[in-house]
Amino acid sequence: MPTASPSAVEPTPELLAELAEASAKLETATPEEIVAWAAERFGNGLTMATAFGPEGCLILSILAQVAPQTYVFNLDTGYQFQATLDLRDRIAEKYGLEVDMLQPELTVPEYEAAHGGPLYQTNPNQCCFDRKIKLLHRGLAGRSAWMSGIRRDQSADRAQSAIVGWDKKFNLVKISPLANATKKDVWARIVKEGVPYNPMHDQGYPSIGCWPCTRAVTDGEADERAGRWSGTAKTECGLHSVEQQGSGI
């Protein structure tokens, strides 16, 4: 069982070498083995951020078996679909895992009033930064490692993801237990194991974020993230995008 206390970590040459070695060894490991390694290595310093996507729900089902004491949180922007919020309760009921819903300092009405209207219409990057990235920093405070549900085949940014690596943007270790899984792999396990998932996935929404910036995809759209920030060049909220010089979002 994990015994370590949450603590900051530094990207020393020794740590980076350890992470590279672990990532290589875990490349062919099962998600359960990866999560178990992370829980053993980082103890209470390990956390997970989830948006209740299929991948996140699958990892939550694994955490319930392997490391149920892990702190898990959601970035509750105030713009999430009701189906997403309801899914949190279904997960808690089935697995006994309570996901902490982190909320911005300003409510949606307060935030929109402060900016003269919905900022997602005029500056979605700033909206994501204020209502997601800032929350993530809060959730990661004092932790040494975090897990995500990203898959390499989801986007060009995510194709570069290691199983285990140093997250330069948030200055801690990042573990992606499903990085080398496919969409088919994930859904096969969800169906077989009866993992709760968002019913909107059955209604043409392969990727679900905030309701103002999410739409259903059409049959001709192969990109499962085509419904996110549709009509703009934006493809990521900033949590998993390749670090850019400057803000990193």
Automatic annotation (TrEMBL):
<feature type="domain" description="Phosphoadenosine phosphosulphate reductase">
    <location>
        <begin position="46"/>
        <end position="216"/>
    </location>
</feature>
<feature type="active site" description="Nucleophile; cysteine thiosulfonate intermediate">
    <location>
        <position position="237"/>
    </location>
</feature>
<feature type="binding site">
    <location>
        <position position="213"/>
    </location>
    <ligand>
        <name>[4Fe-4S] cluster</name>
    </ligand>
</feature>
<dbReference type="GO" id="GO:0004604">
    <property type="term" value="F:phosphoadenylyl-sulfate reductase (thioredoxin) activity"/>
</dbReference>
<feature type="binding site">
    <location>
        <position position="127"/>
    </location>
    <ligand>
        <name>[4Fe-4S] cluster</name>
    </ligand>
</feature>
<keyword id="KW-0963">Cytoplasm</keyword>
<keyword id="KW-0408">Iron</keyword>
<keyword id="KW-0411">Iron-sulfur</keyword>
<keyword id="KW-0560">Oxidoreductase</keyword>
<keyword id="KW-0479">Metal-binding</keyword>
<dbReference type="InterPro" id="IPR002500">
    <property type="entry name" value="PAPS_reduct_dom"/>
</dbReference>
<dbReference type="GO" id="GO:0070814">
    <property type="term" value="P:hydrogen sulfide biosynthetic process"/>
</dbReference>
<feature type="binding site">
    <location>
        <position position="210"/>
    </location>
    <ligand>
        <name>[4Fe-4S] cluster</name>
    </ligand>
</feature>
<comment type="similarity">
    <text>Belongs to the PAPS reductase family. CysH subfamily.</text>
</comment>
<protein>
    <recommendedName>
        <fullName>Adenosine 5'-phosphosulfate reductase</fullName>
        <ecNumber>1.8.4.10</ecNumber>
    </recommendedName>
</protein>
<dbReference type="GO" id="GO:0043866">
    <property type="term" value="F:adenylyl-sulfate reductase (thioredoxin) activity"/>
</dbReference>
<dbReference type="GO" id="GO:0019379">
    <property type="term" value="P:sulfate assimilation, phosphoadenylyl sulfate reduction by phosphoadenylyl-sulfate reductase (thioredoxin)"/>
</dbReference>
<feature type="binding site">
    <location>
        <position position="128"/>
    </location>
    <ligand>
        <name>[4Fe-4S] cluster</name>
    </ligand>
</feature>
<dbReference type="InterPro" id="IPR014729">
    <property type="entry name" value="Rossmann-like_a/b/a_fold"/>
</dbReference>
<dbReference type="GO" id="GO:0046872">
    <property type="term" value="F:metal ion binding"/>
</dbReference>
<comment type="function">
    <text>Catalyzes the formation of sulfite from adenosine 5'-phosphosulfate (APS) using thioredoxin as an electron donor.</text>
</comment>
<dbReference type="GO" id="GO:0051539">
    <property type="term" value="F:4 iron, 4 sulfur cluster binding"/>
</dbReference>
<dbReference type="GO" id="GO:0005737">
    <property type="term" value="C:cytoplasm"/>
</dbReference>
<dbReference type="InterPro" id="IPR004511">
    <property type="entry name" value="PAPS/APS_Rdtase"/>
</dbReference>
<comment type="pathway">
    <text>Sulfur metabolism; hydrogen sulfide biosynthesis; sulfite from sulfate.</text>
</comment>
<dbReference type="Pfam" id="PF01507">
    <property type="entry name" value="PAPS_reduct"/>
</dbReference>
